[in-house]
Model the fold of this input.
Amino acid sequence: MEHSSDEEIDASGSDSEMDEYENEAYEELKDGKLRVKISDETFACPFCPQKKRQAYLYKDLLQHASGVGKSRSQKRSTKEKANHLALVKYLEKDLTAAGRTSKPVGETDPHSDCSHVEKMDVSQSEMDNCEDKSYEELKNGNHQVKISDETFTCPYCPTKKRKRDYVYQDLLQHANGVGKSLSEKRTAKEKADHLALVKYLEKDLAAAGSSSKPAGKTENLSSCSQNDKFVWPWTGIAVNLPTRRAEDGRFVGESGSKFRDELKSRGFNPTRVHPLWNFRGHSGTAVVEFNKDWPGLHNAISFEKAYEADQQGKKEWFASSGEKSGIYCWVARADDYNSNNIIGEHLRKIGDVRTISDLIEEEARKQDKLVFNLTNVIETKNRYLKEMELRCSETSASLNKLVQEKEKLLHAYNEEIRKIQTGARDHFQKILNDHEKIKLQLESHKKELEMRGSELEKREAKNESDRRTLSEEIEKNAVRNSSLELAALEQQKADEDVLKLAEDQKRQKEELHNRIIRLEKQLDAKQALELEIERLRGALNVMKHMEDDGDVEVLRKMDAIIKNLREKEGELNDLEALNQTLIVRERKSNDELQDARKELIN
Done:
């Protein structure tokens, strides 16, 4: 465990808390309380906020969870890291099958993309010829590829963009990526050159590629057992460093940088020398730190062997001989890590114990993971590239269609403009012709008016005499009109009288009509009365015949009937007199009406 990691865990929580949180989260994931799998290919992180949550592929989610779980940032809490470590464990143990089934999509052979080759106007045979030619140049050494045992360069990339520190695998991946690129920005020759570089690396530099796996690894495996437990990061121990007592009674010594520079000059390349201090001051011991990679292990072993050759190694230091002089150095191992002294305490703070086989396996896992992630990225980019090409083709088709429509519209517009201009020109010409025609007509009218003017002047004298005659006639007509006006007034008065007579006649006709209705009613009443009289007379005759019987009641009824009969006869006489009066009045009204009609007609 590294020193910075140890400080972060001390600040956020203990190892036991981390383990407890991790186990609790893992159990929740196993029980299905937290949802991880969305579909066969997509997953979600249940420990990220809802706003930031997104759909991951299996590998992307594994990488995300591992990154958060192993984060050194103090912004990440202990529980958050433990939750993500539990998610890593759950993904690797329980969802491994799902990760395997989510196959990458979009793996295609760029050389089979005929349309792409056609776009570059280069045939497959020309690509092959260019590739063979570049391969021969590489074999003949015309281009520098290998810089050292560990580093390589790409001879076909521009100098400004060239990366000169590729390891074998990185350069192989770079050449593969460019050679099989679907981008139109890459020329055919550029792709052929990089494919030739792939061929050269795989055929001619394969041994260099295998040896470029961390330098010194083979040598270390031959000189060290893979099960030897070393302190990692690779660390050396230096003891019996010269010290002196200062004025305050504490021990002091040379700085670590001076000893580091001395070791560098001998070719051991340490990154740091850290002197160890205690309550007495400089303890006379120091920890020598090397790089974490295989060259760092090589330097550490070389450092140890150099001091062993000088009889100043670990074995000599712990030998029970007398007083020792000089500096003793060796590589820190498990016994040093577990020792109960200042060295062991410091080693436990800055690292942990690992075997070479563990590191090889871890490196292999990281390498596989890196290759897997990069492959996934390439596949994703290929899919994205295909989508972009499809969109580009669709956009091009749409653009061509729009251009054609635009040309049609432009042609129609030009045709319409031409028609409008032709129509305007014809209309203008017609207006000019009409103007000339009207001008000629006006001139002829002008001449005609001038002729009429002269004629009017001639007639003016004649009109004077005619005017006098006319004035005389007007005076006569005025007299005649005055008499006519008087006659009109008389006629108007007569008309008014006629209207009055008509109204009177109408009113009288209405009165006569009403009288006729009354007469009809009276006639009906007269007839009814005559019938009643006849009935009473009949009853009276019957009573007279019954009178001989001498019934008093009958006599009394007969008297009543006689009395009633007389009354009815009196009423009948009155009605006849009234009827005669009405008849006389009607005749008189008819006579008046006839007189009025005659007067109206006159």
In short: Confidence is low (pLDDT under 50) at residues 1-13, 100-121, 211-221. DSSP finds 18 helices and eight strands in the chain.
